[in-house]
Amino acid sequence: MDKKSKDNHGKETMTNQQGHPVTDNQNVRTVGNRGPTTLENYDFIEKISHFDREKIPERIVHARGTGAYGYFQSYGTVNGEPISNYTRAKVFTNTETQTPVFLRFSTVVHGKHSPETLRDPRGFAIKFYTEDGNWDLVGNNLKIFFIRDPLKFPDMIHAFRPDPVTNVQNLERMFDFISESPEAMHMVTFVFSPWGIPATYRHMQGSGVHTYKWVNHEGKAVLVKYHWEPVQGIKNLTQKEANKIQGENFNHATQDLYEAIENGDYPEWELYVQIMEDGEHPELDFDPLDATKLWYKDDYPWHKVGKLVLNRNPENFHAEVEQSAFGTGVLVDGLDFSDDKMLQGRTYSYSDTQRYRVGANYLQLPVNKPHKNVVTNQTGGMMDFRQDYGDFKNPHVDYEPSTIAGLKEAKNAGVEHEPYVEGRLQRQPISRENNFGQAGETYRRLNDWEKDDLINNLVSALLGCHKDIQDKMLDMFYKCDKDYGARVEKGLKSGMESKEEMMEDAMHDAEEMGHPSDPY
Ligand code: HEM
């Protein structure tokens, strides 16, 4: 993977961070060659102290990932109509511009060096450096999610991640949570099928998952969902295939992406949107803002609106990938939030964690800062390295409004979209939950081999769960689809019998074989 390092080896003289030449990088300074060391050993102390601080906190979720640069180009139309009929966002209306992007792929639950073959949704987070500032679309590979209320997110992640006592992931904790969260059944059906282990990052779809809004020049909004389709095609793995890859290489997805780009085999995705009129749509049996639901293609066709190409690898993983920061609040003019309560919960969480994980000035880092000029009164804070204020002509006046100088507000680019909202302040689930209908439909639409793998994966996970958790899960599988429930039930029954036999065999073998002796 690393051709460049050999060429550079030995060419440049090493200095410390103060620019002093390092004449001996092998021996610490000591009294006599056996030690003790002395405290004035500045080079050594600086080297070790910097090393001690080399890592930043890993992401609280999506810690394992990789990224690449490229561009997005809009086709300028939606279903034959000018795209400006729907959105005034220049990233879509300006078809001449190739908007630079940075995309980070990830897995969700486990830590920064965990295997990339694990069953998990995959993150698909894109930063568009548009002429109007940054737009982040922080999505996943699957088109839906486990929950629909942001208050449940920390509990969900606690249940999915390793046990706080043993530090081992325990699927009983996961299914304990799911058995009390029926809205998760649709996502569980995807995640425990081969769709839960994409073969590589290049061979998976992406989706914004949530419903967003597009706003046109008249301030009129439509509801919109975003989907990325890989030109390379979609490939998923069975559990058996994933086990084999994991035994040989647990970085296979990162390596695959890096090598494809180094070899000039640039991965591409086409962007599709689904559009619905703004509103609550009482005629539907689900809520269009519910992130656990698909909008079926037959009812809401996918319209192709642009293309994404990844063509450059980062040069410094820590600086560019680890410190990259995406957020659902990062929108540009012509794009807006919907009322989806989980989308709003996320929007608070991302920049909050990034101020902790990377620091208050995380937006000054090259990977995060917009490609257009930033002219702001928000200065100062730890590690603010701006010295001239760019286009800020009179930084004495770092407040607004002012009659002396300083900055002025920008003009609106079109009519403001001003949705009318009223209602009782309350804590209530949404009205049209319909937790099982689409989950059953998704089960029925899987191929036979996908169904077989799904049932095997669910059965082997549920075999480790208490009987009452198994029973609650079975009840919900039956509610999704009778065949789905019956197959899981049958698998559990025969799995229990063979589990008992296997335990007896294993104990028998261990007794016969005895224990190895220590040869040293
Ligand atoms: C990462 C919170 C739901 C996709 C993160 C991070 C947090 C978070 C705190 C770490 C960010 C960082 O350290 O930079 C939440 C909350 C959610 C939620 C509170 C629900 C209430 C979702 C959903 C999706 C998603 C529904 C998919 C649509 C991602 C992705 C990343 C991420 C792709 C990794 C971004 C990167 O590569 O840096 N999330 N999340 N999350 N989340 Fe979520």
Automatic annotation (TrEMBL):
Enzyme class: oxidoreductase
Source organism superkingdom: Bacteria
Basic and acidic residues: compositionally biased ranges: 1-12
Source organism (scientific name): Gracilibacillus salinarum
UniProt-recorded name of the protein: catalase
InterPro entries for this protein: Catalase, Catalase_AS, Catalase_clade1/3, Catalase_core, Catalase_immune_responsive, Catalase_sf
Names of the cofactor(s): heme
Record-linked CDD domains: catalase_clade_1
Spans annotated as Disordered: 1-36
Family: Belongs to the catalase family.
SMART domains: Catalase
Entry keyword set: Heme, Hydrogen peroxide, Iron, Metal-binding, Oxidoreductase, Peroxidase
PANTHER family per UniProt: CATALASE, CATALASE-2
Ranges of compositional bias, category Polar residues: 13-36
Start and end residues of each Catalase core domain: 15-408
Record EC number: 1.11.1.6
Cited Pfam families: Catalase, Catalase-rel
